[in-house]
Design goal:
6-stranded antiparallel barrel, Thrombin, subunit H, about 270 residues, about 40% helix, alpha+beta, rod-shaped, 3 helices, 12 strands
Length: about 270
């Protein structure tokens, strides 16, 4: 302790002198109305220290206040960000519901024009490969469905049910190689058979002397008892005439875009039961 006092003796005396001076100044300030030369000197000497102390205190207070302000602002920003994400999610859900309702209204309008009872269904699976082109819907025998019922969309024919389960059914698409639908060229009533060819339809048995053009609409003929008459099947994309064959070689693009299909209608009472 003595070594410490010896080492910092000068500094200790200066601090002690400053304290005594401030005490004396404070006493005189309370006892006298006028400021003496001594008091003015003390004020001059103490002013830099007072300014430094006040500045340091103000800086600490400002930093402390800013820290709490930043913490509070960050918390509010996090809450606003969570609320924003929640509102965006609700907006996406609302938009999806709106789009689905629009598609269903379009589909129901198509069925109303068809004037046959139909059951709406959602697509829950698909098998689109080189070997098979099928879809799975979320309705089955529990909803009164059975094998062979036609499945349609607002744009036209989708296919027919080939396998049935209690809560789901498998639908064979018209583009499957094993699918064949009796068809007509709507403009000229030319008869043909539309068979699946992967992503398109091959239109067979249209007589070579008939008027068929690119862009003609192909519809179901109603023959065969599966699909009602007049449902859209596809649009003619190519027509080839060969003088050495009896029939035209026609290709058509399906009116239904199977890659974006989400909802369908199952016609529960085809033509033969009318």
């Amino acid at each position: 302790m003595r070594d410490l006092l010896r080492r910092y003796k000068l500094l200790f005396y200066m601090i002690l002198l400053l304290l005594l001076t401030l005490i004396l100044y404070s006493y005189n300030l309370r006892q006298k109305a006028a400021t003496s030369f001594f008091e003015r000197a003390v004020l001059s000497l103490a002013a830099p220290f007072q300014i430094a102390i006040d500045g340091g205190v103000d800086s600490v207070i400002a930093i402390w206040n800013n820290y709490f302000w930043l913490v509070d602002t960050r918390q509010r920003n996090l809450e606003l960000e969570r609320e924003n994400l929640k509102l965006r999610s609700q907006l996406r859900e609302t938009r999806e519901i709106s789009l689905q309702n629009e598609r269903l209204r379009h589909l129901l309008g198509f069925v109303d024009e068809l004037d046959r009872p139909a059951l709406p269904a959602q697509i829950i699976g698909e098998d689109v490969s080189h070997w098979a082109r099928t879809l799975v819907i979320d309705k089955g025998s529990g909803s009164g469905l059975r094998n062979g019922l036609p499945v349609v969309a607002a744009e036209g024919v989708v296919g027919r049910i080939i396998k049935i389960g209690p809560e789901s059914s498998r639908v064979l698409l018209i583009t499957d190689a094993s699918s064949a639908v009796a068809s007509l060229v709507q403009r000229t009533r030319t008869r043909s058979i539309a068979r699946g060819r992967g992503q398109e339809l091959a239109v067979n048995y249209a007589l070579g002397d008939r008027d068929v053009r690119v862009g003609d609409l192909l519809v179901t003929s109603g023959m065969g008892g599966v699909f009602p008459k007049g449902l859209p099947l596809g649009l003619v994309t190519t027509v080839q005439r060969d003088p050495f064959t009896l029939f035209l070689k026609i290709r058509a693009e399906p009116t239904v875009d199977f890659s974006h299909l989400e909802e369908v209608m199952v016609i529960v009472r085809p033509d033969e039961e009318q």
